[in-house]
Amino acid sequence: MNFGQRMFVAMASAAVLTLTLGACTLFDSTSSNAGVSQLDPVQQRAFSDTANAVRLIGGVESVSSSATTGDVWGDEISLDVTVSPVVSDASVRVIAATLRNSFDRNELATVPIILTLRTDGARNGTFEQRNFDLSDDAVASNFSYWRAVQEAIGAELRMELSLSPQGDDRYMRSLSSPPEVAANDTMDRFVENFDGLAAVPDVNVDKSYTIWAVNGFQSTHTLPPADVVTLIDDIRTIIPLNGNSAEGLLSAAGGESLEGVVVYWAPPDGVLPATEVSINRAQFREPDWRAAIDVAIRASAESDVSVQYIAGNSQFRLLTSACEGNVATTSDDEKFFEAVRDAGAPLSPDAAPGLCLPKF
Question: How far is CA 190 from CA 124, 198, 243, in A?
Answer without folding.
Answer: 17, 10, 14
